[in-house]
Each structure stands twice: as structure tokens, then as C-alpha cells.
Amino acid sequence: MNLEQAEGLVKAGKLDEGIAALNGLLSGEPGNIRALMGMGVASHRLARHEEAAGAFRRILEIDPGHLEAAKSLCLSLLASGRKEECGEAADVIARDRPEDHSSLAFAAAMYQALGRGCDARLAVDRAIELAGLANRDEYLDLRAAVSGLPKPSKVKYRPEVAILCVQGMDNFIHELVKGLSPYCDIKAHVGGNPAELLKAGGKAGVLWLEWGNQMTGAILAQKDKLRGKQVIVRIHNYEVHDNLVDRLDFSGVTDIVFVCSYLRDLFLLKNLKVPTGCRVHVVHNGIDIRRFRYVQRGDSRKDIAFLAYISYKKDPMVLMQAFAFLHRRHPDAKLHIAGMFQDRRYEIGMPHFLRESGLSDRAVFYGHITNADEWLKDKDYIFSSSLLESQGVGMLEAMSCGCRPLIYNFPGASDLYLRSQLWTTFDDLEDRYVRGQDPKEASDFVARFYDRNREIASWLRIIHNRETIEEKFDFSPYQAQA
Q1: What is the mean pLDDT of residues 348-355?
Q2: Per-residue pLDDT at 224 exceeds 80
Q3: Which of 257, 275, 313, 480 has CB atoms 3.0–4.6 Å from 234's, for a disulfide?
Q4: So what's the pLDDT on residue 133?
């Protein structure tokens, strides 16, 4: 029997006969790739996955670049429950074909099946970049699947959304636009003139006003131009503390979004005139865990990172005192301070404190850094002494990299972080320093509760209305520690 006849048996479903015929051919020609491929396919269909994997491995020994065999090997290993080997085989496909979008998409599907969500998103995002328009819809659905989001192809209604934001305060919106664009016709308009911004977004059925500030107040005053629209106001932090929200006319607002529950509660205590039916939401800022890659830490527990603009908001003199306290008990501790000074007093006062306390050689000032991911990779801890934070995105990014958290227990912090990640007194701080959270657990915490896809899902529920988007996520890190 020749090869074509043996392959015909396999195609016809006569698998045992096909395998027998292929074995006969391979006994005389053990390196016949077509015969080995047929043997592997037939064995896989019979759930004889070990035999199938053996056939595909033999092909790859002969021809390491045989893509069909490489993919088939992954599928056989996955079916047999050999997940680690399957992951290694998928890694080879992604590594050896970094410019082949279909191979990267296949690797992404394997990573998804293996529970390697971050790797899956990285691979499919790269596939989308390479594919252009040709496979865009297919790959967007794959990205949604690996991200736990609805498939864009299943969303029948794509509302027109305009985000209006003051120039220089738009750092939170552009990644959201990218994440929401498969589901909405969404554009960000950034500028300094409220009238021009409103004109730019005037045709949109959904107006998203970023920050509850003076610009938002000027736009909300144009009531005749807001009628019939869904009007969303997102409030971050200072707008509540500086009483800017007290001056806003919420009568035309349909949704108010806060970045944390503590700010929502402070806002509600003001008893402002919010129209009946206006929905109030909490949507935490998401972290792009793909940008902040986890780096395994060693046993070292001495390098403490402080990464922030240096102003009274971050309470930097508490940082100084806390570090002095730790250093007395742990002389090998070292402090790394990155960020621009926003107040000349601290630029003078902090080095003075270090000199007077004999700690100048244990602290390093780096100034502004452009690559936080690179800078953090050899730091053991991320430190926060902030009197108040709405969330602390910088801390979460550092935790995603694997830094152990040393976060001051600011108001509302226990709704955002685990108690084991927080300190209130210096004695608490030392306990967290000595028995701090495992780096991988810190990174996994961010991926579980603060992955940007959770934020995207929350915004979809607001824009599309809850009943049209499956609600998959329940945010409760606080409850998780019970």
C-alpha cells in the first residue's frame, strides 16, 4: 500500500487500518515526514496522545521548522494533560516565529488553555499588530477570550463615545480608548477650551467628562447641548478634597464614576444635588500587567524603592523617619528614591535629614526616571507614606513587577489592599519588612484584582448598560482576606 492510500484510510476514519499501513511504510522509510504526520493525526484522533506526541517530536527532530508538527505536538500534549511540556512547545513556536501572526495567535490560544493569561495577551496583541486588517476581527475575538471580555463580533450596538479632557490631564484615558475601541466608536478630545471640546464631541451619544473640575463645570452648564445624551463624569481625587465637585451642576449627569469607594463615600456625605436615577459607580484604575513584567526576586530584603513626585501629598518626611527606624534594626537596608521634587523645601530638607542622621550613604536620589519597569527590577520593596491616595497606581505597578508592598494604611486603603500589605505604625512597618508578602503573591494580587481588563469590563457595563454585558468580576480583595 502506498502513502496516498494509507492517508486515505486515515481521512476516511479507518484509523487502525491507517496506522497499520503507515507503520508498514515507516518500517522501510523511518524518516518519512508525511507518514509520521499521518501517524500522529490518527493516533491523536484515537486519543493515543503519547504515540501522537512521539510522531510529532520525530518530525521536529528531522525538520525543526515544521510548523504543523509543532502545533500538533502542543495539542497532543495539552490533551494528555502534560501542561508544562505543552507550554514549553508553545514557547518555541512564539520564540521562533516572532513575525508570524498566525503562529503567535496559536501560541496565545495555548497559553489561554494553560492559564497563562499574561503571556496569552502579549502574544495575541503582537499578532494583532502584525496582521493588520486581514485577521483583525478574528484576533480581537481571541484577545477578548484570553482577557475574559465579551467578543467584539458579538456586540451588535457600538455607541459613539467622546471623552473630553483638559490638556495635560489625559494620562489615564488613552489606554482605555484602545481597550474600549473594539466595542465603541470612541474618541478622546483633549484641549483647554470647554466650548471647543464640547463641539468636538457634540455628535456623540455618550459624553465622558474626565475629572470633576472647572472644565467639566463649564460643559455641564451647557444643558441644552447635553439633552438626550448619556453624560458620564469621572472623579479621581482632588476634585472631592478641594471641593470642586461642590460647584458642579449634576442635573444633566446620568453616571458618576469614582476610582475608589472611599472617594464615593466622601462625595455622598456632601449631600449634593444629584438627580434621581443618576447611577453612581466605582471603577478602579486598571494596570497593564503586560508592561510591568514580573522579575523573580532572590532572598535579598534590603532595597526599598520610593517612586513618586515628591510633594507634601506623599509625606516624604515620614519616609525619612520610617527609613531611619528600619535602618537602626536592619543596617543593610538601602533606600532608592525616584521622582521629581515638586517643592523646594523637600529638595533641601530630605538630604539634610539624611546627613544629620548619618544615612547619606544608604539613600540614593535618581530624579525623574523614564523606565519604571527597568528601574524596579532589582528593588525588593515598594514604599508608600502617602497621607491619602485614591488608589496608588504606582504601588500596584511595582507590585506587578514583584516588589513587596510597604504601604501606609491611608483612609480607604483596606478596601484596596490586603491588611498584610499595609502598615500603620513603625512596628507594623518592620513586621511587613521582615515578613513581607512573597513577590509572586504580590504580582498575582495585581493580576487578579487590578488587571486593566477588569476596568474595561466595568466601563462596558456602564456604557452598554449592565444587562447587555455579562458581569464577570466581583472586586473584593478585602473580603478575600477573611
Answers
A1: 97
A2: yes
A3: 257
A4: 66
DSSP category for residue 341: B
Contacts of 344 (CB under 8 A, 6+ apart): none
Asked if 158-282 and 303-449 have one fold, the answer is: yes
Mean pLDDT of 453-477: 65
Helices first, then strands: H and E counts in the chain: 22, 12
Q: What is the pLDDT of residues 421-450, one digit of tens each?
A: 999 999 999 999 998 889 999 999 998 899
What CATH architecture is 303-449? 3-Layer(aba) Sandwich (3.40)
Integer CA distances (angstroms), 233 to 208, 255, 381, 446, in order: 6, 6, 35, 26
pLDDT, tens digit, for every residue of 157-189?
889 999 999 999 998 899 999 889 988 999 999
Provide the 3-class DSSP secondary structure of residue 189: strand
| Cα 262-265-267 angle, rounded to 5 deg | 110
Alpha helices, H only, 184-301: 194-200, 214-220, 238-241, 261-269
- What separation, in Å, do the N-terminal and C-terminal C-alpha atoms of the chain show? 68
**In the structure, what pLDDT confidence band is assigned to residue 14 with cuts at 50, 70 and 90?**
confident
Best CA proximity match to 298, nearest among 378, 398, 405, 382: 378
Query: What is the model's pTM?
Result: 0.78
Give me the sign of the Cα torsion angle 355, 357, 362, 363: negative
Predicted confidence at residue 436, as pLDDT, reads 84
- What class is the 158-282 domain? alpha beta
Count how many residues are written for the chain. 482
- pLDDT at residue 479, rounded to an integer: 36
C-alpha cell at position 53: 506526541
Residue at 179: amino acid letter = G
Instruction: Give backbone dihedrals phi and psi of 198, rounded to 5 degrees, phi first.
Output: -65, -40
Domain boundaries of the chain, sorted by first residue: 3-152, 158-282, 303-449
Distance CA 310, CA 326 (A): 21
> For the sheet containing 230-235, what is the strand order?
185-191, 160-166, 206-210, 230-235, 255-258, 279-282
How far apart (Å, rounded) are the C-alpha atoms in residues 272 and 250? 9
- pLDDT band of 311, cuts 50, 70, 90: very high
Instruction: Give mean pLDDT, residues 190-200.
Output: 92
In CATH terms, the fold of domain 3-152 is 1.25.40
**162 sits in which H/E element:** strand 160-166
Q: What pLDDT was estimated at residue 469?
A: 41
Instruction: Give the span between the Cα atoms of 133 and 381, in whole angstroms.
Output: 43
Tell whether the torsion through CA atoms of 37, 39, 42 and 47 is positive or negative: negative
**Calpha distance 241→23 (Å, rounded):** 77
